[in-house]
Amino acid sequence: DVTIEIDAITKLIIPEIDDEFAKDMDFENLEEMKAKIGEELKAQVEHSNYEAQNNAIINALFKKKPFKIPPMTLKSIIDDYAASLHIDENHPLYNYYVNEAANYLVRYLIVDSLREKIHIEVSEDMINEFIEHRAILSNSSVAGYKEKNEDYIKSDNFIRDAQDYFLLRKIAETCTFIEPTGETEYPAYEIAPYEPEEEEEQDNQDKPEEQEEPSEENVRKEEQ
Asked: What are the residue boundaries of the structural domains of the chain, listed by start?
């Protein structure tokens, strides 16, 4: 025989969504809570659309003028991903992160090229706007985002990311975006063949030096 002793029985009680509930959530009343949540959801959709537009610009530029991805740079990014996530090639998500690395590299190379043509000077107001943008995307308050990402905000990478964001937003102002009719189609990336430089140098060292053919002028001098 088996004896089972029950310590307690609990039941989930869902509270009524009313003014009292809103006050418990630090709002004056239910209407204020609804308005605040609505504003936050609207902001999240708006800023998510900004990111979608920026990505659409990158994809459109790549489709218009595709290029091959440098293999060693891609491998370095993939290795960093794998090391930080403690995964290897046998992991079921490995190919997903390979694609993520390719997306990151293509975006970096395209934006780096755009930076040479479009100069963006980031002001203090733009920095604050970018912080707010990142906070909204991470579903966090500005203060909470600053506290959690203090080192990143102080880094050169943050300034560069802010420049890239506003650069793409500037381009977006000149674009017309349409809603996709189906799933988003991302461009197919082609990786350039790996050609190690060391082997090429060694091959060149093994080759005998090519002697220049004597010119007619030198031949005449020798005959004289």
From this structure: 15-65
